[in-house]
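Subject: sequence -> structure tokens, single chain

Hey, anyone have a minute? Need the predicted structure for the following. Not urgent.
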Amino acid sequence: MTTSTHSSHEPPAGPRDGGTVTDRLIDANGRYAQKFQDPGMDARPVLRVAVVACMDARIDLHAALGLELGDCHTIRNAGGVVTDDVIRSLTISQRALGTTSIVLIHHTGCGMQTITEGFRHDLELEVGQRPPWAVEAFQDVEQDVRQSIRRVRTSPFLLHSDDVRGFVFDVKTGRLTEVRAD
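Reply:
Had a minute. Here:
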């Protein structure tokens, strides 16, 4: 089983000397920049929406939601959970850049369902310092979407909390299923 859309017979284009993954990404950027044309837009999303989703590499958010460059702000983290830093980003997105809608997307088969808060304790034992952040692991993806909706809706920092909707993306079918808040 492959973990990338690149076939095993055709490796992604990269540096001729077989450098690191980062070297391949920088080479790809060079090719991109040669064809790049300034789209003439600013940082305010055209659709006035911010999307919070899991960082899982299987989810191509723009394709899944029919979005184009400049349509939305995208905030991704492990699990797509609403943390203090997500609230920070959403607050800036709304107050400085005009977004009014928030879409929250978790997904099936999330790695955050396979670990526990014990991960943080194990990490502390390994490195000798407790991480200042919570793992935010969860067992029930729909319940965690509901929790994320509540965190957004109760944040005093957000101007717009009436158009907040949560979904679970099925990584096998590509379909979104809406999760209703309690």
